[in-house]
UniProtKB/TrEMBL annotation:
The organism of origin for this protein: Sabulicella glaciei
Designated name of the protein: Tripartite tricarboxylate transporter substrate-binding protein
InterPro entries: BUG, Bug_dom1, TAT_signal
Protein family according to the UniProt entry: Belongs to the UPF0065 (bug) family.
SUPFAM superfamilies: Periplasmic binding protein-like II (SSF53850)
Length: 329
């Protein structure tokens, strides 16, 4: 045998042994997990809907795991900064991302994300949902979706709809509304819920596309009226408000979901364990009631089903963004 081939041949068994040793070490660590605090990263500021859900989940998981679950808020760039940080974290189960469904919308509008929304993560489970709703101010003349559609058709491009920013649930919901009903609206993005709501309540903007969780306070206070729900079912908090499907329109569910993601490469056995623990949390009646106070509903998907949901959502929102020309740098 020629010597020039021997170095390559000699390296192959070592590489195989190295991979086996790494896998064995990860398995051993997974069996002892957790032996220290777990970090749950949130891509939004404290006090927002995602942060509130994360803290409710963290409290329950602390009891299940016997270790602290520490919330770390890393806001910025529509949660892409936090998402990238978790994607690059060690796949050892000690860093998790509490993600909302902007996770599957961001790839449709940002041109150069440093991670892949599906391939860079190991989904642990989806835990809750809250529908997107088309609202109008209490003083506005619209009482049904038909009223708003008729006004929009009478003044194409003049009727404005507020959202909490470019590329969010409201923006995507507004685009699907226009495609489904054949109307043209004027998108008015704001920097968050508070300034958008202020102009809606003052009557300066007639429509507001916002999740139920983000608008429930103003609704309970009688300041805004719901016109239609974007989702598969009527919302428990809005039992008399129809869905788009009930009104004969096809529009994808642009409501928010919340779930946990781990970095890709996290041991499968550990993902399954965390998924089972998250399912246990979802069945806790007290937890369900706490979510209801936040206008959210417990909606559990395990690791495999959550992964499938993510891969289904990605092309759906890419198609909407492409049709609407939605792009952010």
């Amino acid at each position: 045998m020629s010597n020039k081939h021997s170095p390559g041949l000699g390296r192959r068994p070592l590489l195989g042994l190295s991979a086996v040793l790494v896998a064995a070490a990860r398995s051993a660590r997974a069996q002892n997990w957790p032996d220290r605090p777990v970090r749950m990263v949130v891509g939004f500021p404290p006090g927002g809907p995602t942060d509130l859900v994360a803290r409710l989940v963290a409290t329950e998981l602390e009891a299940a795991w016997g270790r602290p679950v520490v919330i770390e808020n890393r806001a910025g760039a529509n949660a892409t900064l936090a998402t990238d940080m978790v994607a690059k974290a060690a796949p050892d189960g000690y860093t998790l991302l509490c993600a909302a469904n902007n996770h599957v919308m961001n790839p449709a509008i940002y041109t150069n994300l440093p991670y892949h929304a599906a391939d860079s993560f190991a989904p642990v489970g989806m835990i809750a949902t809250s529908p997107n709703v088309l609202w109008t101010g209490a003083s506005q003349p619209f009482n049904t979706l038909a009223d708003a559609v008729a006004a929009a058709k009478a003044r194409p491009g003049e009727l404005g709809f507020a959202t909490t920013g470019n590329g969010g649930n409201g923006h995507f919901g507004g685009e699907t509304l226009q495609r489904a009903t054949g109307i043209t609206l004027m998108h008015i993005p704001y920097r968050g819920t508070a300034p958008a709501m202020q102009d809606v309540l003052a009557g300066r903007v007639p429509l507001f596309m916002q999740t139920l969780v983000g608008a429930i306070g103003a609704y309970r206070g009688g300041q805004i009226k719901p016109l239609v729900v974007f989702g598969p079912d009527r919302a428990p908090d809005l039992p008399n408000v129809p869905t788009m499907a009930e009104l004969g329109f096809e529009a994808p569910d642009s409501g928010v979901w919340y779930g946990l993601l781990a970095p890709a490469g996290t041991p499968a056995a550990l993902i399954q364990r965390m998924g089972r623990d998250l399912e246990m949390v979802s069945k806790n009646t007290a937890f369900q009631e706490k979510l209801r106070t936040q206008a959210s509903v417990t909606t559990f998907l395990g690791p495999a089903d959550f992964a499938a949901r993510i891969r289904t959502d990605l092309p759906r929102w890419a198609a909407v963004a492409q049709a609407a020309g939605m792009r952010l740098e």
